[in-house]
Write a structure and sequence with these properties.
By secondary structure, this protein is mainly α. The protein is built from three helices and no strands. Helix content is 82%, strand content 0%.
């Protein structure tokens, strides 16, 4: 079971990282369609919190929005505890 949880979290991390990076790129382009904050936060809560947090740091994206930082960190703590107790 742990193996499948780790695979799921890994896939969600990659997808979420890509979404944050794409949104940052689109933010720099005038008139480009953005990814909604709800979609980004939902992906973080659904298991992509590590990817979201890494993208925030690497791409300096959404770092001024306190709720992005808090949701990504709290989700990361929650999933870390989940994996820890599954071991």
């Amino acid at each position: 079971m742990l193996k499948y949880v780790l695979i799921y979290l890994g896939v969600m991390t990659i997808i979420t990282y890509i979404l944050y990076a794409v949104d940052k790129k689109r933010a720099k382009m005038k008139g480009a369609r953005r990814i909604s904050e709800v979609a980004l936060l939902s992906m973080s809560v659904l298991g992509g919190c590590l990817g979201g947090y890494l993208a925030m740091i690497i791409h300096h994206h959404k770092t001024k929005h306190w709720y992005f930082v808090i949701i990504n960190i709290l989700s990361l703590v929650g999933y870390t505890l989940l994996v820890y107790f599954m071991i």
